[in-house]
């Protein structure tokens, strides 16, 4: 990979400095990710996953929300079809996220754009788009810095796999880690990300619909169907309400 091309200001940002800039920018979010990575690891160990199996799951899947759902649904033997279906529903938000980031990737060849999409998480997506918007305001082209984005994705990937594995190793010692309040870090991180993406109440209506449907389903329907209900209702609401927002 070469240095960034086409910086309108004439500044040539070396690959290394952009990578480091991306790594540094994700540190505040990373501090929120570590606690719930430990929670996931501990919960997985309580479900019988070993410190070998868990990093395989978190490293190959690399999607925290669906991994939490999978662990909640995990039985012996596991209901593979149900877990796959829930994973698809939870990760279906990536369809909208991919559509939102696609305009920023048009200058990239597919051999770079596709791996970048594979590494996309809620956190790297939010930071990457926020940085692209900031660069666009400064007149920099291309607005999207691939090295910056990859710097954030690399840190999140390594930290996620490492701390979920650590959680699995410490889980039997720590017991019920939810008693420490670590699980509160999960919604806290997403609230911070939502704050950065806030465009007003009208654009947030799909989030509200998803929240209400998931909460009602959680209260009145046994099992983990609230995950599917929240994901589906959010997607439907986004599709129906997009015209109004536009």
User: What's the story with the biggest beta sheet?
Assistant: none
Helical content band = over 70%
Q: Which segments are poorly predicted (pLDDT under 50) over 5 or more consecutive residues?
A: 1-10
How large, in whole angstroms, is the Cα Rg?
A: 19 Å
**β-strand number:** 0
> Topology as H/E string?
HHHHHHHHHHHH
> How would you sum up the global shape?
globular
- What percentage of the residues does DSSP assign to strands (E)? under 5%
Q: Tell me the structural class.
A: mainly alpha
Gap from first CA to last CA: 37 Å
Oligomeric description of these chains: single chain
Count of discrete alpha- or pi-helical segments spanning 4 or more residues = 12
Q: Which whole number gives the mean pLDDT?
A: 81
Describe this structure in words.
- The protein has 246 residues and is an all-alpha fold.
- The protein is 74% helix and 0% strand.
- It has helices spanning 15-25, 27-46, 53-61, 64-73, 80-91, 93-105, 110-118, 122-137, 146-174, 185-197, 201-220, 225-245.
- It starts with 14 loop residues before the first helix and ends with a helix.
Keywords:
246 residues; mainly alpha; 12 helices
How is the secondary structure organized here?
Blueprint lengths: L14 H11 L1 H20 L6 H9 L2 H10 L6 H12 L1 H13 L4 H9 L3 H16 L8 H29 L10 H13 L3 H20 L4 H21 L1
Short description:
The protein has 12 helices and no strands. The chain is mainly α and 246 residues long.
């Amino acid at each position: 990979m070469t240095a960034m091309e086409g910086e309108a200001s004439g500044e040539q940002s070396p690959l290394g400095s952009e990578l480091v800039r991306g790594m540094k920018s994700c540190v505040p979010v990373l501090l929120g990710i570590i606690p719930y990575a430990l929670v996931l690891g501990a919960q997985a160990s309580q479900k019988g996953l070993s410190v070998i199996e868990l990093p395989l799951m978190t490293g190959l899947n690399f999607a925290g929300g669906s991994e939490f759902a999978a662990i909640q649904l995990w039985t012996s033997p596991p209901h593979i079809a149900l877990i796959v279906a829930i994973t698809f529903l939870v990760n279906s938000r990536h369809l909208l996220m991919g559509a939102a980031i696609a305009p920023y990737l048009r200058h990239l060849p597919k051999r770079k754009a596709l791996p970048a999409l594979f590494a996309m998480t809620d956190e790297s997506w939010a930071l990457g788009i926020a940085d692209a918007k900031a660069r666009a305001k400064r007149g920099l082209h291309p607005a999207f810095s691939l090295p910056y984005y990859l710097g954030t994705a690399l840190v999140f990937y390594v930290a996620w796999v490492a701390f979920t594995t650590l959680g699995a190793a410490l889980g039997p010692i720590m017991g019920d880690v939810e008693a420490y309040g670590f699980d509160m870090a999960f919604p806290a991180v997403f609230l911070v990300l939502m704050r950065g993406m806030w465009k007003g109440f009208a654009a947030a209506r799909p989030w509200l619909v998803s929240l209400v449907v998931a909460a009602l389903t959680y209260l009145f329907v046994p099992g983990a169907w609230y995950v599917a209900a929240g994901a589906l209702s959010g997607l439907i609401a986004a599709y129906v309400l997009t015209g109004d927002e536009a």
